[in-house]
Each structure stands twice: as structure tokens, then as C-alpha cells.
Write a structure and sequence with these properties.
There is one protein chain. The chain is of the alpha+beta class. It contains 10 helices and 9 strands. It has a 7-stranded mixed sheet, covered by helices on one side. The chain has a two-stranded antiparallel sheet with strand order 1-2. It is elongated and about 65 Å long.
């Protein structure tokens, strides 16, 4: 893709989530094309002049999608309150010594939450403690967790991704997964785990070549009592298989599209990835490929 195509494709992806982008965000999440901020700004100006996109309050979007700006501003207000709640959850989770990273994912990671959204969290665990960590994480957040039986999930914690530090690389390489990794916001980081996770998933630059990890708001903390944590992890590993069996037996009748492996657990109630990529391909054909002037 040339730069005009890539810019339109980037706005197309944001449009799926009703999310207009600033020039800096367009450059940071530019699809499959490297460009400077100056080059992106110039391209946005050209696309506006050609009536292919619109702009309000320095937010850019597909033509005639002016309503997205107000929606983003409103969602940003909801997200601020949810972010504070996520920080509260991370402070509770710190009592679990096998947790190396807690990060916000999903809509909240982009300050794009609606009032009724829950709070999606990713947790990276110490080696060989993924099931033990999940058990205690769910126990600690039990009063605040989302319930599949409830219609109201507002501000509830959703522990939908667990990753063992022994296998940080996400195997599904596509634009959706690249965005999810790039967008996550670490709120508790121990032993530079976030940096290790980003390095292990360096493949995302194939899809988002301009992307750079933001400076962390959550400072990485070194484990002071290294010997103690190893001892605790060893003791917990003795019950790892027991807790794994217990949780799998409990979930057996409920499992649908969840991805359950030895080192990575993905619990998603819906196949959002497939839906997003399907919509992206359709919109791409309409807003990018159909435009012969930029082919």
C-alpha cells in the first residue's frame, strides 16, 4: 500500500470501533506503511481536500462520520472512571506473588469504553503457575468480577487473558492481534515483563511498522525477595496440576470458543477477532481499493 491507502486503511480500522484518530494516532497505528508525522499530516490534508475523509477538533475519520468525535469524547469520560477502577483491581492482585504483569486490554486500553462496559485485564504469570495464578486472581477479585449470568457488567473485572512468562509470543499474527498487543496498557509491571512481552511479539511491526511502546505509567518493579518468590512459586507449583484439573472440570460444560493451552489462556465470550477482520476486509474494499485514484 502507498501512504494514502495506508492512511485510509488505518481510519477504516478505527471506524470499526467508532473511533476517530488524531494525526499522532494515525501515524502510530499506520497500517503496513512507515511514515513520519509530517508525511501523515500532509496525506491527511490531501485526503480532506479530495473529500475522502473528514476532520473535527483534530480528530480524523471516514467521510460523513462526524458523529464519532462526540462519541469518542463521551467515551473518554467513561474510561477515566473505569481506568481508576482498573488500578484498584491491580493493587488487589499484587498480593499474588506469581503475577508479573497486569495490563488493561480491549476498549478501555484506548479510552473507548461505553458506560456499560466491563474492564478487560491481561495477566502474565511466573513460569508454570498459570492455573494457580488464575485461581487466586479470580478469588481475590471475586466481589468485583463480571458474571455471565448478569446483564449488567458495568465496571466489573474480566480476567480474559493469562500468559505464562515461559511463552510470551502470541501465535495468531494478524492486524487485530497486532492492535490488541500495541494498545494494551500495563498498570502493574514486575521485572520488566512488559518490555519482554513487547520484544517477544516484535512481529506486530509487520502490520504496524510505526508503532512504539509508550513510556510506562506503571513503573517496573524489581523483585527484591528473589529467593522468597522462587520458593513461593515452587510451593505453588505443587498444586498447579490440582488447580488446573479443578478449573478445567468446572469449565468443561461451559467451554465454547475459549483457547486453552499449557502456557496461554484466552477467555472470550464471542469471536470478536473474526468479526472485526471480516468487517475490516469489507470496509477496506469500499474505502480503499475501490478508489482508483490511489491504486
Amino acid at each position: 500500500m502507498n501512504l494514502k491507502q495506508a492512511t485510509l486503511a488505518t481510519l477504516v480500522y478505527g471506524d470499526i470501533f467508532d473511533y476517530p484518530l488524531t494525526p499522532g494516532e494515525v501515524q502510530n497505528y499506520l497500517v503496513e506503511n512507515k511514515a513520519t508525522k509530517t508525511q501523515v499530516a500532509k496525506t491527511l490534508t490531501i485526503l480532506i481536500a479530495e473529500h475522502k475523509i473528514g476532520e473535527t477538533k483534530n480528530y480524523f475519520f471516514l467521510q460523513k462520520r462526524y458523529g464519532l468525535v462526540k462519541k469518542r469524547i463521551t467515551r473518554n469520560k467513561y474510561s477515566k472512571k473505569k481506568y481508576a477502577k482498573a488500578i484498584f483491581f491491580s493493587k488487589l492482585l499484587r498480593v499474588i506473588p506469581t503475577i508479573n504483569l497486569v495490563a488493561i486490554t480491549g476498549a478501555l486500553s484506548m479510552n473507548n469504553s461505553t458506560a456499560s462496559d466491563d474492564i478487560d485485564l491481561l495477566i502474565i504469570t511466573a513460569k508454570n503457575t498459570i492455573w494457580t495464578t488464575r485461581f487466586f486472581a479470580n478469588l481475590v477479585l471475586l466481589p468485583y468480577k463480571r458474571s455471565p449470568r448478569s446483564k449488567f457488567q458495568n465496571n466489573r473485572a474480566c480476567l480474559n487473558i493469562f500468559i505464562d512468562e515461559a511463552n510470551l509470543k502470541i501465535s495468531e499474527e494478524n492486524l487485530y492481534t497486532a492492535h490488541e498487543i500495541a494498545q494494551l496498557k500495563p498498570i502493574y509491571d514486575k521485572n520488566n515483563t512488559y518490555a519482554k512481552f513487547v520484544k517477544a511479539n516484535n512481529w506486530i511491526h509487520k502490520y504496524l511498522p510505526n508503532w512504539k511502546a509508550e513510556k510506562q505509567k506503571a513503573k517496573s518493579k524489581k523483585q527484591k525477595a528473589h529467593v522468597n518468590i522462587l520458593l513461593v512459586s515452587y510451593c505453588l507449583s505443587l498444586i498447579e496440576n490440582l488447580l488446573k484439573s479443578f478449573q478445567l472440570n468446572y469449565m468443561r460444560s461451559k467451554i465454547t470458543i475459549e483457547q486453552i493451552g499449557n502456557t496461554q489462556l484466552f477467555f472470550h465470550p464471542k469471536n470478536i477477532q473474526k468479526k472485526v477482520l471480516d468487517v475490516y476486509r469489507k470496509k477496506f474494499k469500499v474505502y480503499v481499493r475501490i478508489d482508483n485514484s490511489i491504486l
